[in-house]
Design a protein that fits this description.
321 residues; alpha/beta; 2 domains; 23% strand; globular; transferase; MetA_family; Homoserine O-acetyltransferase; methionine biosynthesis; HST_MetA
């Protein structure tokens, strides 16, 4: 089934050129089916790249998905045209009275700042608080995961001695979770960050559980026990060349950023990298959408967050509510 996005969004042509099933708004209006309603809070400066990467992962499922793109009102990205933002993006004030089946909060290049020092922190905390009553299940990515697990559960982040960048092996530590259904016991995923959360802090919290970790990269996936909040501390949505582009950018600035680990063939940045994480990345998004959004969200969106919304816990993740 397709992903439903505005006809003129730049991602449309890219996804269609990759043989991804994209449904136009006109065609979707003539189907008698309720699509999943998702909101993507895009905090990345390269918004078009990020929205395309994430939509690519959302599209390869048997579900029709309607996506609203949201930006912060308290900070406007300088790396994308105002026309693009005005045409395709909304703000929290525009949607705060709506309800959504799912929400995705992206990362942002602000890791070395204290959370409270981020320009839009107050607005972000308002949005995250709103998600507890207006969103069935929320997926947080990279810095968005660090911000979400700090806001909701008080888990701090810690600065690393150097940037963690590369593709690392991870182990599934809770194989019974539907989120990792179909995963290999060990799998690869990319990371790109300056800070981390500690597994011990998550394990000590009664409302959180670890799903996948890495000996080298630390925590990769954690979730709340009620399955309302998911935290992915890497970048499963990254394209094959994203880490290369980040490394080339930093090298051109003379930042002394280390070569991404286990990424370039023979660790040689002059060689073209290959994506070795794509299948598991797709499965992660598909499992979240299927087991924790589609199969458990109320058919009537007005029930999301109400007493009738039992939530997407693992016990009912195999039967649509």
């Amino acid at each position: 089934m397709p992903i439903r996005i505005p006809d003129s969004l730049p991602a449309t042509d890219v996804l269609e050129s990759e043989n991804i099933f994209v449904m136009t708004e006109f065609r979707a209006m003539h189907q008698d089916i309720r699509p999943l309603k998702l909101v993507l809070l895009n905090l990345m400066p390269t918004k078009i790249v990020t929205e395309t990467q994430i939509m690519r992962k959302l599209s390869n499922t048997p579900l029709q998905i309607e996506i609203d793109l949201m930006q912060t009102a308290s900070y406007t990205s300088k790396n994308v045209s105002a026309q693009h933002l005005d045409t395709f993006y909304t703000t929290f004030d525009d949607i705060k009275d709506e309800r959504f089946d799912g929400m995705i909060i992206t990362g942002a290049p602000v890791e070395l700042l204290d959370f409270e020092s981020v320009d839009y922190w107050d607005e972000l905390t308002q949005i995250m608080a709103w998600s507890t009553t207006n969103v069935h299940s929320t997926l947080h990515i990279c810095w968005g995961a660090q911000a979400g697990i700090y806001h909701h559960y008080g888990i701090p982040k810690y600065e690393l001695p150097a940037k963690l960048s590369g593709v690392f092996e991870h182990e599934v530590v809770k194989p019974s979770s539907p989120l990792v259904r179909g995963f290999n016991d060990f799998f690869l995923a990319p990371h790109s960050r300056f800070t981390e959360v500690h597994a011990a802090d998550i394990e000590a919290h009664p409302d959180l559980e670890l799903i996948a970790v890495s000996d080298e990269a630390g925590v990769y996936i954690a979730k709340s026990t009620d399955s309302r909040n998911f935290f992915v501390f890497g970048h499963p949505e990254y394209d094959a060349d994203t880490l290369k582009r980040e490394y080339d950018r930093d090298a051109a600035k003379g930042l002394g950023t280390p070569v991404p680990q286990h990424y370039f063939p023979d660790d040689d940045p002059s060689q073209e990298p290959h994506a070795t994480w794509r299948a598991h990345a797709q499965l992660l998004y598909t499992n979240w959408l299927n087991y924790y959004v589609y199969q458990t969200t109320p058919y009537d969106l007005a029930r999301v967050g109400s007493e009738d919304d039992n939530g997407p816990d693992d016990r009912n993740a195999d039967a649509r509510a």
